[in-house]
Amino acid sequence: MKKIPVSYLPLILGVIVLGMPACSKKAVRSGGDMQASQDETAKGRGSKDGTGSSFPDTSFSRSDESNNLRGLDRNPSEERLGGHAGNAGSPVGAGHANAMVAKADSGAVARQLAEIRAEQVASVAAGLRDVFFAYDSFSVTDEGRHALAGDAEWARSNPNAQLKIEGHCDDRGTSAYNLVLGEKRAKAVRNYLVELGVAPTYLSVVSYGKERPFCTEHTESCYSQNRRGHLVVKTGK
Amino acid sequence: MTFRVVVFVSLCVSIGVAWIIESGAADVFLEATRQDFQKIPLGIAGIENLGGSESPEARVKLGTRIEDVLKADVRRSLVFALVDLPSLGIKVGHLGAEPDPSFKQAAENGVSVIVWGQAGMKSGNKDVDLSMDGYVYDAGSNEVVGGKRYVGSTSVARLMAHRFADELVFRYTGEPGIARTKIAYVSELGTARELFVMDYDGYDPRQLTADGFLNLMPRWSPDRRFLVFTTYRNRNTQDIDMIELATGKRWTLVAQGGLNITPVLSPDGNSLAYSSSHEGNAELYRLDTKTKAVQRLTTHAAGDLSPSWSPSGRELVFTSDRSGGPQIFLMSADGSNVRRLTFEGDYNAAPAWSPRGNWIAYVCRTPKKEYKLCVITPDGQKRLQLTTGLGVDDSPSWSPDGRHLVFSSTVEGKSQIYMIDADGKDLERITFTGTHNSAPSWSPAS
Predict the structure, then answer these.
(1) Mean per-residue pLDDT over chain B, rounded
(2) What distances in angstroms separate CA B296 from CA A44, B245, B273, B308, B335, one per listed residue?
(3) Contact A57 B289 (CB under 8 A)
(4) pLDDT tens digits for B367-416?
(5) A100 in contact with chain B, both atoms CB, cutoff 8 A
(6) At the N or C end, where does chain A have fewer CB atoms within 10 A?
């Protein structure tokens, strides 16, 4: 390289570095609602904006951390290692994870099962039909529209019923992205029901991604069963 | 303490701090992960069984078990290369606290370290009845450089081996080692999915939640005290909760309505990044854990999810389907400077930034529509596919030393948890029971 470009390089790079964040920040703001969401947040601390107002401090500084290894010693003194439960004092190595306890709450499990069963019974009684989707897709098919026409009719003749639309995905793909895909499917179903005249206030959506499959085989017939918008008569909260 | 070579071009220094903030290069450390790192040859001359109160069979099992655990830990450290001592004429077993004369042959055979020890039962005390002594011989100086003496109940036998292994790694690298780390994960119980924590080698699984529905994608707090995760309250809303491991106590961090998923605390613990659809579609947000203020980071009609922090906390890598299928994107932690990182394939998701900063692991869909693990450098210059075969690999999570990944895979049918070296070698399955184990998250080192 020649002399002049080299000496200019830091200056040029500096301009790029300082310029870029400002540009992209503008791009983000031009999306519209960033400012609005910040204002909302400032007003609604705690429960109003849906974030918990009190939980323990999670801040962490690497320099605070004492590596609890003591190093090798020519005349090692005894190190007492902690077990999992009921250890008096704080023996070495009884790290936080060792002292944990399973929060067995069989009441919660039983309640969930009873509520799921009640929803199933009510949904079967209503004769609600599900909507099935193609791989990677969240478009409602013609067959799906046909099923939803019947569901919409039921909803109109049962105006006090709350319908829940569960978005489900097959096992392929990542858990996290399938939660987003499942929500897109559930919302596509909801939007079509609204088009058919069902009041949005009686409809709710939830995505289960690939976490509550209807079958678990690795076959296309099973996968297609799991790519669905599942309609449920909501009986709980 | 730790020997670190921070890599950045000398030119950057002249530009100053602004460049460091904008560049991922400041996150790159070269240590034992570098290609030409020579493993330290180490031999284990036995953990002998001493007498005690238990039956001879139990004693044999105990000593063997500690030795096996230690061997596995030493192998997984990737700091040491295990050497077979008897084939070099070096005595194994029936050793006291002093090095055997045959140890002198270690140096000329290229062996740097020999470790050995004894384990036995103490009678009389109900709480403390197992003791283990470990010794470390350095071939270069031809002397015992030190040892350890552990006591505890038989339930901590594995922990004694893990702790001794970490002391060895600490002695030779200045790093704390990974043998005492934990893995949080999700396991299926009936139709419910609950949080569990196990040792890094798959032993000692412990159940943390029993809600009877879905708890998903746990992530550790940097101080290892808490997990943050998605919970389905009343089956209808996805909120973000935090659980304290020591007590099982829970707090709700985010309950905004809509999908609230993929929470992850920043390396300093002061920010929680997560994805929420409460304003329409899935967007990334940042919750200040001190002031509880929420900042929206992304604004796009597409879905944004799965944030992962750079080691410095200055940048985030995340999944977005803004260009069609899901792809990996980078941005500054304030939401500025968004740029796409992956261009190969039509489905790339679940990114995880290495604690050393030099790689980002993610799930890549192959041309044959299999979901496998890939790694890519933050500048996008180098990309490797780590796993092959059938099935869906998901949720890669780095070991704190950056030398391994843990992930879930259906390669053998049911979803189970596997460990693999960062270069794709030494695939090892670590869960064997249950119908579905997924979403592993590797704890920080202690």
Answers:
(1) 89
(2) 14, 29, 10, 16, 8
(3) yes
(4) 999 999 999 999 999 999 999 999 999 999 999 999 999 999 999 999 99
(5) yes
(6) N
Chain CA centroid to CA B415, Å: 19
Taking only the tens place, the pLDDT of each residue in A168-188 is 999 999 999 999 999 999 999
Which residues 101-120 of B are in CB contact (within 8 Å) with A?
none
Query: pLDDT-based confidence at A109, cuts 50/70/90?
Result: confident
Rounded to the nearest angstrom, the minimum Cα separation between A8 and chain B is: 11
Question: With a CB-CB cutoff of 8 Å, which residues 169-228 of chain B face chain A?
Answer: 170-171, 176-177, 180, 182, 190-193, 197, 206-214, 216-217, 221-226
CATH superfamily of domain region B40-173: TolB, N-terminal domain (3.40.50.10070)
Q: Which CATH class is domain B182-442?
A: mainly beta
Cβ–Cβ under 8 Å, residues B39 and B77? no
Cβ pair B192:A56 closer than 8 A? no
Question: Quick check: ipTM above 0.85?
Answer: yes
Rg (CA), chain A: 28
Please give the pLDDT value at position B54.
58
**Alpha-carbon distance B446 to B440, whole Å?**
18
Report the C-alpha gap between A162 and A118 in whole angstroms: 14
Predicted local confidence at residue B147, as pLDDT: 95
With contact defined as beta carbons under 8 Å apart, do B283 and B260 qualify? no
Which among A53, A97, A113 has the least Cβ separation from residue B182? Answer: A97
Which phi and psi (to 5°) does residue A36 adopt?
-60, -45
Of B418, B425, B445, the residue nearest B201 (C-alpha): B418
pLDDT in tens, B254-284: 998 999 999 999 999 999 999 999 999 999 9
pTM to 2 decimal places:
0.85
User: Which tokens hold the place of B1?
Assistant: 């303490």
Tell whether the model's pLDDT for residue B45 goes beyond 90: yes
Residue the block writes with tokens 């602004």: B18
The answer to whether A148 touches A196, Cβ cutoff 8 Å, is yes
Compute the distance between CA of residue B181 and CA of residue B163 in angstroms, rounded to an integer.
10
> B255: Cβ–Cβ under 8 A, 6 or more apart, which residues?
A50, A51, A52, B233, B237, B239, B240
- Residues 124 through 163 of chain A touching chain B, CB cutoff 8 Å: 136
Select A113-233's CATH number: 3.30.1360.140, 3.30.360.10, 3.30.1330.60, 3.40.50.300.
Answer: 3.30.1330.60
